């Protein structure tokens, strides 16, 4: 006997059981996406942050090292120029001495240093930081050197005997430059200061280094992205399939094994799921055999009782008062037989075999069976609705709902309605009865719950299971007619 698409008897469906199996499986997608995103963030963000911090640190460190190296080189050049000039020569230069031999001699030395050390500018200043000789001709002899007064702390340290470099600055041409200062003469007896200015040409290789670092960083991040995607899929893929397997087992599909795809904890968990599937399937099979045995043992006496009741009716034809008791026996036997039938239909429901089912002729057939003369039932169709469903199970489902509606509203109105939706089809069974009290709405789909004296409590539970097997939902609403509206979406 097939164990597919059935629940263990006695396990009441939860409120979420109205969601069909395919929809439940598809709902796992967002969870899988969130897990993948979390893995992606957990693995990629720290690495990206680390690479970015490393790149910034490397760039700043390289910048600082190259700047220090340029400062040392310029300071050495300033010292080399300063030792060639005597303090007396600086003191001898006065305003108007541009044509003197001293001015020419010192200017020649500064020009040679300019070419030898590949400098942009060499400036000789007096102890009061006024101009003496400027290779760029921008500062006149005796003029105040306002341009370099921002470096006064460095110039004063140079007068004390320490060659010092200034911070980087940007010239009018937009390029970076750096200056260094050295004293002319001994500390404390310096006759002036030599300023040398150099172009920060190290920025060119530093920019190349930055581009190289950026390209390598992009390459590493791209490789890391591929690794993260592969690892995330290797984790989320088995987890997704394991979740789908758990949903199948929860919906009573025990035929498909749960494979252990990996050799890690997820694989171990899959093996435990497979053990659970086998145990549940075996227990379900034993229960089906037990139910079949119970039905057989019960129906045999019921058949015998029905036979003897018929004989009894024939033997009491001349005693009308006793025939009333026989009729009562027949009603009770019929009720017991209906209970056994409903019990087995709920527990041993077959796998649906879908086919195209036009609803118009099916509705007419249901009305003829449940309410001959269709005085109480009205059919409302929008277009020519049809569904893909197992015709026998759909007929049983709708007949059950229609009979419930007629029992709730024996004088009508009862409506069978259907219309096509995108996608699928919407079917409604409405009645004008008293409706379902709010306190009972959460229980009406529970197996064996009934408010009727002779009800089995399995009709609505079976209806909901049939709808779920077809990938749809069955919900309860208030009908415009004032009673209950059972809405089926397929």
What is the CA-based Rg, rounded?
Answer: 49 Å
How many beta strands in the DSSP annotation?
A: 13
Q: Could you spell the SSE succession in H and E letters?
A: HHHHEEHEEEEHHHEHEEHEEHEE
Mean pLDDT, as a whole number? 80
Q: What multimeric state do the chains show?
A: single chain
What is the number of helices?
Answer: 11
Gross morphology: rod-shaped
Helix-residue proportion: 40-55%
What class, by secondary structure content? alpha+beta
> What share of the residues does DSSP label as strand, in percent?
5-15%
Low-pLDDT stretches are: 1-32
How far do the termini sit from each other? 27 Å
Descriptive key words:
single chain; 490 residues; alpha+beta; rod-shaped; disordered N terminus
Task: Write up this protein.
This protein is an alpha+beta fold and 490 residues long. Helices cover 53% and strands 14% of the residues. The protein contains eleven helices and 13 strands. It has helices at residues 21-26, 28-82, 87-92, 101-116, 152-159, 203-250, 265-315, 320-347, 359-370, 391-408, 459-469, and strands at 121-125, 131-134, 164-165, 169-170, 176-184, 192-199, 355-358, 377-382, 386-389, 414-420, 425-431, 473-478, 484-489. The strands form three sheets. Strands 1, 2, 3, 4, 5 and 6 form a six-stranded antiparallel sheet that branches. Strand 10 (414-420) and strand 11 form a beta hairpin. Helix 6 runs parallel beside helix 7 and helix 10 (391-408) runs antiparallel to helix 11.
């Amino acid at each position: 006997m097939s164990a597919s698409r059935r629940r263990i008897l006695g396990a009441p469906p939860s409120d979420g059981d109205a969601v069909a199996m395919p929809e439940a499986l598809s709902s796992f997608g967002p969870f899988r996406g969130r897990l993948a995103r979390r893995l992606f963030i957990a693995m990629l963000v720290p690495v990206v942050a680390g690479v970015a911090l490393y790149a910034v640190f490397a760039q700043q460190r390289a910048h600082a090292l190259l700047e220090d190296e340029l400062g040392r080189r310029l300071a050495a050049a300033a010292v080399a120029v300063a030792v060639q000039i005597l303090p007396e020569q600086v003191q001898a230069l006065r305003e108007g001495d541009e044509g003197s031999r001293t001015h020419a001699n010192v200017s020649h030395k500064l020009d040679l240093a300019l070419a030898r050390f590949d400098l942009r500018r060499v400036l000789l200043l007096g102890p009061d930081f006024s101009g003496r000789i400027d290779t760029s001709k921008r500062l006149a002899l005796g003029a105040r050197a306002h341009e370099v007064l921002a470096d006064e702390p460095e110039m004063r340290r140079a007068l004390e005997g320490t060659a010092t470099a200034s911070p980087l600055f940007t010239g009018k041409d937009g390029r970076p430059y750096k200056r260094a200062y050295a004293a002319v003469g001994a500390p404390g007896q310096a006759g002036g200061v030599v300023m040398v200015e150099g172009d920060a040409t190290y920025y060119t290789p530093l920019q190349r280094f930055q581009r190289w670092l950026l390209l390598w960083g992009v390459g590493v991040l791209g490789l890391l992205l591929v690794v993260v995607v592969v690892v995330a899929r290797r984790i989320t893929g088995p987890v997704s399939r394991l979740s789908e397997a758990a949903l199948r087992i929860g919906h009573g599909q025990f035929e498909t094994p749960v494979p252990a795809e990996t050799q890690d904890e997820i694989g171990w968990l899959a093996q435990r799921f497979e053990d659970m599937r086998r145990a549940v399937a075996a227990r379900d099979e034993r229960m089906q055999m037990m139910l079949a045995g119970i039905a057989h043992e019960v129906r045999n006496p019921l058949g015998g009782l029905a036979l003897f009741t018929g004989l009894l009716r024939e033997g009491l034809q001349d005693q009308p008062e006793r025939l009333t008791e026989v009729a009562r026996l027949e009603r009770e036997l019929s009720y017991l037989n209906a209970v056994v039938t409903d019990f087995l239909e709920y527990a041993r429901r077959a796998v649906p075999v879908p086919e195209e089912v036009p609803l118009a002729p099916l509705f007419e057939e249901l009305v003829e069976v449940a309410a001959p003369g269709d005085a109480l039932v009205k059919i409302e169709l929008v277009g020519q609705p049809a569904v893909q469903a197992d015709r026998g199970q759909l007929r049983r489902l709708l007949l059950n709902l229609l009979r419930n509606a007629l029992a709730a509203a024996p004088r009508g109105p009862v409506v069978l309605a259907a219309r096509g939706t995108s996608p699928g089809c919407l079917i409604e069974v409405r009645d004008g009865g008293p409706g379902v009290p709010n306190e009972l709405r959460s229980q009406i789909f529970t197996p064996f719950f009934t408010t009727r004296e002779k009800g089995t409590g399995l009709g609505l539970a079976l209806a909901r299971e049939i709808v779920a097997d077809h990938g749809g939902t069955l919900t309860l609403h208030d009908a415009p007619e004032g009673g209950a509206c059972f809405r089926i979406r397929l």
